[in-house]
Amino acid sequence: MIGIGVSLIPLILLLGSFRSDQPTSPKVDAKFLPDLAGNVEPLSPSSPVILRVNIHGIIGMEGGVLADDLDLILTESRRGQFANDRVKGVLLHINTPGGTSTASNAMYLNLEEYKKQYNVPIFAYVEGLCASGGM
């Protein structure tokens, strides 16, 4: 028994080395899309913007979208180049099979609070799948 226990230690250490300790927070960046005429001109610092939030993959699971990811995106949408109440609407781009009920509920509550606090409408666009917690 002691031999088996001792031989498992290197195996556990080896498997643990494959784990990534890098944070998986989303990359929050701005992309300026063309207007109806196809122009992609730099906007003035006071121009209104629409925040697009991608909800792709399994909600609440690594590789999908986490409630903390959404919270970070919403927080960052009020700072930096989006400060001074530039965000005039939120577009949720959804393609998800759903996910955990706790993460889905946390995301819903974050969006509801953001909508109430900043008086910003939230719209959803489903492209592909929207099931379970994505509803």
Q: What is the tally of helical segments?
A: 3
| Outline type | globular
Order of helices and strands: HEHEHE
CATH topology of the domain at 62-135: 2-enoyl-CoA Hydratase, Chain A, domain 1
Strand order of the largest sheet: 1-2-3
Task: State Rg.
Answer: 20 Å
Euclidean distance between termini CA atoms: 51 Å
Calculate the mean pLDDT score and round it: 79
Approximately how much beta-strand content do the residues carry? 15-25%
State the helical fraction: 25-40%
The total count of strands amounts to 3
Tell me about the biggest sheet? 3 strands, parallel
CATH architecture of the domain at 62-135: Alpha-Beta Complex
The CATH homologous superfamily name of the domain at 62-135 equals 2-enoyl-CoA Hydratase, Chain A, domain 1
Description:
The protein has a three-stranded parallel sheet, with no helix packed on it. The chain has helices at residues 2-16, 67-76, 101-118, and strands at 49-56, 87-96, 122-130. The protein has 135 residues and is of the alpha/beta class. Mean pLDDT is 79; it is low at 17-25. Helix content is 32%, strand content 20%. The relative contact order is 0.16.
